[in-house]
């Protein structure tokens, strides 16, 4: 008797299995003088091979940005605990784009507009307290209807009485 070792699957069969477990979506946006093409592929095929707690899908995102004659492509990879039954490729692309919305709406405003990165407070509770004050002021300004935070900050810096009037509307 001879013992048989496992023989790799014949390439067409392997390719068919790969395609069965592959979900993909392509999205094109035009605006701000550029075209952005996003192509997301997700697969649960590595589930039995990857030793990562909670792993459900591997993701590949290819982003191509075309501005005039310049074309820039970048590729990112990620893993998620969301299985294909909970998040298909379209949903994963929406989640990824939503992450950047948070980055642009909150972190960029805190870092650039409010100068958080330049803040020299580094010890004790100072950095956390200042971050809380920045978040509270952003929430306050947005609740008051200001979408342009930099414009609102400049206005209130030059007209503090306008800020006091706005604050007086929020009494208990």
Spans of 5+ residues with little confidence (pLDDT < 50)? Answer: none
What's the number of helices?
5
Q: Radius of gyration over alpha carbons?
A: 25 Å
| Global geometry | elongated
Strand content: 15-25%
Report on the structure:
The chain is α+β, with helices and mostly antiparallel strands and 172 residues long. The protein has five helices and four strands. It has a four-stranded antiparallel beta sheet. Helix 4 crosses helix 5.
Which secondary structure elements does this structure contain, and how are they paired or packed?
Layout: H1 11-20, E1 22-31, E2 34-43, E3 57-67, E4 70-80, H2 89-113, H3 126-143, H4 149-158, H5 160-168
Antiparallel strand pairs: 1-2, 2-3, 3-4
Helix pairs in contact: 4-5
Task: Offer a few descriptive terms.
single chain; 172 residues
Can you give me a brief rundown of this structure?
The protein is α+β, with helices and mostly antiparallel strands and 172 residues long.
